[in-house]
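Quick one, tokens below. Sequence please?
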């Protein structure tokens, strides 16, 4: 147990400078799915549709253009109602949400336009859609948004509580081993070392002669 405790303390001292010098991890913002979150997503979808001047609906093997506003980016790209969007920026799409995600990533990358492939009258046609009307989503590089359900959040909290209890038990065990080690080494609770009794012979210590006298007789080993 003594060797285990010394090894544990040595490992902790070895990794402590690395932990202190490490860069802090990026901040993580956890959002639970709620009614207000769903409403915010719908508001964002409506805003995106208005910026591009179209309305989309999921259909089999693509996304159908339900409506196109006059003089909008979608109209200027020569898209038409009932066109079925099958890919955006070279990526296949099956839902309006996926279309918006791809377009948002393209805008955040600094692109001003992207290719949109649609199926019309049995033919696949490619058009260049302007994205200058879309506003980029502001997000700092040091923050990541993670959306989880309330059930997953409860499970995460329970897992953290279990890990906290395990770490507490480990700490208690470590403290007990430290106390045992201190007792074995003769270290008192105040952190000092017990001083030998004056005049006592410390085993293994050299015997020095007294000033003005003869050296005391060396202790005789008992057979």
């Amino acid at each position: 147990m003594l060797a285990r405790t010394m090894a544990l303390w040595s490992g902790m001292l070895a990794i402590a400078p690395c932990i202190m010098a490490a860069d802090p991890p990026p901040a993580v913002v956890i959002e639970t799915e709620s009614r207000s979150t769903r409403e915010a997503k719908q508001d964002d979808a409506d805003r995106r549709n208005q910026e591009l001047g179209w309305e989309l609906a999921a259909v089999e093997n693509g996304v159908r253009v339900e409506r196109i506003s006059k003089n909008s980016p979608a109209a200027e790209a020569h898209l038409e109602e009932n066109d079925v969007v099958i890919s955006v920026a070279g990526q296949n799409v099956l839902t309006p949400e996926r279309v918006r995600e791809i377009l948002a990533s393209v805008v955040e990358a600094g692109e001003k336009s992207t290719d949109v492939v649609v199926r019309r009258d049995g033919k696949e046609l490619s058009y260049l859609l302007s994205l200058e009307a879309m506003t980029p989503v502001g997000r700092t590089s040091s923050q990541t948004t993670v959306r989880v359900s309330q059930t997953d959040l409860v499970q995460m909290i329970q897992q953290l509580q279990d890990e906290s209890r395990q770490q507490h038990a480990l700490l208690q065990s470590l403290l007990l081993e430290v106390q045992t080690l201190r007792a074995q080494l003769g270290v008192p609770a105040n952190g000092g070392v017990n001083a030998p009794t004056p005049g006592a012979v410390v085993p293994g210590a050299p015997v020095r002669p007294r000033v003005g006298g003869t050296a005391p007789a060396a202790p005789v080993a008992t057979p």
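Residues 150-185 form the longest helix (36 residues). Confidence is low (pLDDT under 50) at residues 138-144.
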